[in-house]
Design goal:
Blueprint: E1 3-4, E2 15-16, E3 20-23, E4 26-33, E5 37-41, E6 53-61, E7 66-78, E8 82-88, H1 92-106, H2 113-121, H3 138-174, E9 176-184, E10 187-191, E11 196-201, E12 208-209, E13 214-218, H4 221-274, H5 280-301, H6 307-324, E14 327-329, E15 334-339, E16 346-347, E17 352-357, E18 362-368, E19 381-385, E20 390-399, E21 414-421, E22 433-439, H7 441-454
Length: 455
C-alpha cells in the first residue's frame, strides 16, 4: 500500500511505502518514511528512549532485489506500537537517493533498478532534497515557483536600475559643481656643505626619510685611513685590557675564597679567646692575617683607568666629527622626489643633491565667483584620479592665492582655491589635471532633511 499524507507544514512529507529497517539484526516494517526520518511498527519492547542514538540499515526493496543503506538514527517519538526516528548526519547525496526511491515507489516504477543505480553514481540530482512530495501538482508548482522567482528578480533589478539612474541624474546634474584642477606639492632641496667626490648614495626616489637621515656620503681617504688605524690600535688595547681584567677577576675570586676561609678561622679564634682556650697572642696573630688578606682583596677590586685607551677614544671621536662633515643629511622630513647626483661624481659646496617632497599633494582649482556662495565648504570634495582610475576625497584648505601670485579675487571672474587630499596619490604626477566635484549646499540640506525623516 502506498500512502501520501496531505500537504502540511512539516519540513518533509511522509509517505507510506514498503520500506524496512534493520536494527540489531531484526527487521521492522516502516509505518511511513521521508527524506528526514522513518517511523516503524513494533510489537516488542525495543530498548530505546527518546533522544537515544542507534545504528541501523535502511532496506529499499525492488522487484528482484533490494538496496541496503547504513544510517544513524535518533529516537524522536515512541508510542505503544510505533517508534519515530530521525536520520542523523545523513549526507545530501544519500537523501537524494532516498527521495528518488520514494518517487519511483509512488509512480509504481520499482522495477526500474537502473534508475536508482544511476542516482547512486550521480552526485547531483535535479529534484530538491527536503521539499514536499505533492507529486500530483509538482509540475504546476514548479512553474509557479519559477515564475515567482523571475518576477521578483526583475522587479528588484528594475528598481535598482531606475534608482541608480535617478541618483546619477540628481547627484551629478543638480547637486554638484564639476571643474578641473592641477595637482602639486611643496618641495625642499638638500644641498652639499663642502666640495668632494660622492662615495655612496643612500636614498632613491619615492623613499620616505626623516630630518637628519643620510642622503649621500663624500670621500676623504686620509680621514678614513686615520679612522681605520686608530680603531685597530684601540681594539688591540681593549683586547689586552679585557685579558688583564679577566686575570684580575680570577685572582680576586681566589682571594675571596681564601678570605672566606680566614674569616671562619677568625670567628672561631674570637670564640676560643672569649672562652679562654687560646692566648691573646694567638688570637692577634689570626686577626692580623685575616685583616691583611681582607685589605689585599679590597685593593684587587679597584679598576684602574687605562689612560692610553681614553686618549685613543678621544682621538677617534675627533676623527668621526671630521667625518660627519662628509655626510649630506636630509634637512626635513618627507619623501625623496629626485636625486641629482651619481656615485664617484664631483660636487661643489652649495650644489643641489636631491629634491624632497615635504607636503601631501594638494590641488589648485578655479571656480566662478558666482558659484562660491553655493558650495558647501564643510562637505568633502570628490577628486577623480585618471591615472589609477579611482576617486579620492579632499577638503578645501584655502580660498584665493595671495602668497606668490597676488590675485585680487573681487576683481576676477573666478577664484583660485587650495584643496587638500586625504589619501596618498602616488600615481598622479606633479602638474597633472584632475577632475573635481564640489558639493552643493542644496544637496547638504536635502541630505540632512532626509536623515531626519528616516530617523
Amino acid at each position: 500500500m502506498i500512502y501520501r499524507e496531505p500537504t502540511s507544514k512539516r519540513r518533509a512529507q511522509r509517505v507510506k511505502i514498503p520500506v524496512f529497517l534493520e536494527i540489531n539484526g531484526k527487521i521492522y516494517q516502516s509505518e511511513d518514511i521521508s527524506v528526514l526520518g522513518i517511523g516503524i511498527k513494533t510489537t516488542d519492547d525495543l530498548p530505546i528512549e527518546i533522544n537515544d542514538q542507534i545504528k541501523g540499515k535502511l532496506i529499499l526493496p525492488f522487484k528482484d532485489a533490494y538496496l541496503t543503506i547504513p544510517v544513524n538514527l535518533i529516537c524522536r517519538h515512541k508510542s505503544k506500537n510505533k517508534i519515530g526516528f530521525e536520520f542523523k548526519d545523513l549526507d545530501d547525496h544519500t537523501r537524494q537517493v532516498i527521495r528518488h526511491y520514494i518517487e519511483l515507489a509512488i509512480e509504481g516504477r520499482l522495477e526500474d533498478l537502473e534508475d536508482i543505480i544511476s542516482s547512486l553514481a550521480i552526485k547531483e540530482l535535479e529534484s530538491p532534497i527536503v521539499e514536499g512530495l505533492d507529486l500530483a501538482e509538482e509540475e504546476q508548482l514548479e512553474t509557479y515557483r519559477r515564475f515567482k522567482r523571475h518576477f521578483w528578480f526583475w522587479i528588484v533589478f528594475g528598481t535598482i536600475i531606475i534608482g541608480a539612474f535617478l541618483y546619477y541624474v540628481i547627484y551629478n546634474v543638480i547637486f554638484t559643481y564639476k571643474t578641473w584642477g592641477i595637482i602639486t606639492w611643496d618641495t625642499q632641496k638638500a644641498i652639499s656643505h663642502q666640495d668632494g667626490i660622492v662615495k655612496k648614495i643612500n636614498v632613491k626616489p619615492g623613499q620616505n626619510i626623516k630630518a637628519g637621515d643620510v642622503i649621500a656620503e663624500l670621500k676623504d681617504p686620509e680621514i678614513e685611513k686615520q679612522e681605520q688605524l686608530t680603531q685597530e690600535i684601540l681594539n688591540k688595547l681593549k683586547t689586552k685590557e679585557i685579558e688583564k681584567r679577566q686575570k684580575q677577576r680570577e685572582i680576586a675570586s681566589l682571594l675571596e675564597r681564601l678570605l672566606n676561609i680566614n674569616y671562619k678561622e677568625y670567628q672561631e679564634a674570637k670564640r676560643l679567646y672569649k672562652a679562654r682556650k687560646i692566648s691573646l697572642k694567638d688570637f692577634k696573630y689570626i686577626e692580623k692575617n685575616y685583616l691583611r688578606l681582607a685589605l689585599l682583596a679590597k685593593e684587587k677590586e679597584n679598576i684602574f683607568i687605562n689612560k692610553p685607551i681614553i686618549d685613543l677614544e678621544e682621538k677617534l671621536a675627533t676623527i668621526q666629527a671630521q667625518k660627519e662633515k662628509l655626510l649630506i643629511r636630509a634637512p626635513t622630513n618627507g619623501k625623496i622626489e629626485e636625486v641629482f647626483i651619481e656615485p664617484n661624481s664631483y660636487i661643489i659646496k652649495g650644489q643641489e643633491i636631491a629634491s624632497i617632497k615635504t607636503s601631501q599633494p594638494y590641488i589648485i582649482a578655479k571656480i566662478p565667483n558666482w558659484k562660491l556662495t553655493e558650495i558647501d565648504y564643510k562637505e568633502k570634495i570628490i577628486i577623480f584620479d585618471p591615472f589609477s582610475d579611482k576617486k579620492v576625497a579632499g577638503k578645501i584648505l584655502a580660498i584665493g592665492l595671495t602668497d606668490d601670485t597676488e590675485i585680487d579675487s573681487l576683481n576676477q571672474k573666478s577664484t583660485f582655491i587650495k584643496i587638500g587630499i586625504s589619501e596618498e596619490t602616488g600615481s598622479i604626477p606633479k602638474n597633472a589635471r584632475v577632475k573635481i566635484w564640489f558639493t552643493n549646499k542644496i544637496y547638504t540640506k536635502f541630505k540632512k532633511l532626509f536623515s531626519k525623516f528616516v530617523s
